[in-house]
Prior knowledge:
Layout: H1 2-53, H2 55-66, H3 84-89, H4 96-103, H5 107-111, H6 116-126, E1 134-139, E2 144-148, H7 154-158, E3 163-165, E4 176-181, H8 185-192, H9 194-252, H10 256-260, H11 262-293, E5 302-305, H12 306-323, E6 327-332, E7 338-341, H13 343-359, E8 366-373, E9 377-383, H14 418-428, E10 432-437, E11 443-450
Parallel strand pairs: 6-8
Antiparallel strand pairs: 1-2, 1-4, 3-4, 5-7, 8-9, 9-11, 10-11
Helix pairs in contact: 1-6, 1-9, 9-11, 11-14, 12-13, 13-14
Amino acid sequence: MTIAMISLIAVQMYWINSAFSIKNEELLRTASIALQSFALKLEKQETLQAIKSSKELHKNIKDSVFKSPRSNQRYTTNNQKINKESKILESNDIAESYLIALKSEGIIKRISDYNIHKIIQSEFSKLGILAPFYWGLVDTKKSNIVYAEHSVFSEELIHSMLYVQLFPHDILASNYRLSVIFPEIQAYIIDSLSIFLLGSAACILLIMGIFSISISSLLKQKKLSKMKADFIDNMTHEFQTPLATISLASEALRDQEILESELTRNRFLDAIHKENSRLSKHVDLILQIATLEDKSIPLILESVNMHEILEIAIDKQLINIRNKGGKINSVFLANHSTIHGDSHHLFNVFTNLLDNACKFSKDFPDITIKTENTKFDILIQISDKGIGIKKEDHKKIFDRFYRVITSNRHDVKGFGLGLSYVHSIVTMHKGSVSIQSHAKNGSTFSVKLPLEQ
Length: 453
C-alpha cells in the first residue's frame, strides 16, 4: 500500500513538473516570436520616421508614388482610398541614402524616440503573454550591457536566451541585441496552471488522506485484535478457576465421609455456590456488553433515588470489603438525589465501580462514596486509596477490553468490560463519567447525572 501511494504521488509530481516545463517552453517560444515581430515593427517605424523627417524627400516620394509610370497624369480614383504610408514604405530605395546616414548613428540614439517597453508589451499581449518583463541592450562582441531597463537584472539580461537582433535589415550587421527576461516567470506559470495544480494537489491530498485512514484503520484493527486476544485469555482464566473449584468440590462431595460431616459438606457447598455466583456474574456482564454492542439495550426509565441505589450497592460489596479488612464510608451531601433512569443498570454501574475500588486496593480497601448537588445534576464520587492509574491510561480505561497493565496480567480479575459498561450506561442517561488518579495515589471516579425535573 505504501509503495502504491508513493508511486501515485510520484506520478502526480512528474505530471506537474512536465506541465511546468511544457508551459515554460511554450512561453519562451511564443515570446521569441513576439520579439521577432517587435524587431520588424521597430525597423518599419524607424524607416517611416526617417522618411517623414525630410520634407523634400517626402515630396519626391509622393510624386513618384502618385504619378503614373507611363504618363505625367496623377491617379484619380473615386472608389478607392490609397494608404499613403504603406506606399511610402514600399519606396525604400528612394530613402536609402538618407537611412544610411541615420543608421551610422549610435544604437541608443536610434531607439531613443520609441517606447520600447510599450511596443514589446503590445506584441506580447497579442500572443497572450501578460507576464511582467524587463529588457536591455547587450553588446554581443564585448558581452556587456549597454542599457538595462532595470540595472539589478543586468547580469541576467547578458545571459538571457530570449533575445532578438535589432534592425535585421541593416546593410552592416549590428552587434547589438535586445534581451528580455521574465523575473517572475515561475509565479506566472504557476498562476496560469492554477486549475491544473489545484486538481493535482487535491488528488495528492485525497491519496494521502485515504492512505492515512487505511493505516489508522489497520492500527486500530491490530490494537483491537490484541485486546480481543487478551480478553479471550482473561475469560479463559476467569472461567477455568471457578469451574475447577466446582469440579473439585463436586468430586469431594461424593466421598461418604465428607457427606457425613455437616461442617465439611457445607463448606464445599458454599464454595460451589460462591463460584457459581461468580460465573453467573461474568456471564451477565458479557451479555450486557453484547447488548450494548448492538445498541439495543432497553432502559426502563422511572424515578430513581440515587441514595437508595448506592445503599444497596454498598450492602452488596460490604462483605467483600470487610473480608479484605477494609471499610467503606458514605458521605451523602446531596439534598436532591432523584433522577429519571433505569434502577437495574444504575445499580450495576455503581456495583462495578465499588468492585473496581476493592480489587485495585493493595491491602485494606479504604473507599469513600460522596454525593453532592451541582446546578442541575447530582455528582457521585467513589474514591479509593489503591494502586491508582497512570495519566496516559485515563482516556483508554473506558474502551472495551482495555485493562491497565500490571506486573501480572492475572493478578486482578476481570475482562476489561466493566468500565466500558459504566461509560455506556451513564452516557445513555445523558450523564458523564470521569477519573482523577495518579499511580500509587488512589483513584476517584466522578459520575454526574441530571436530576429529575
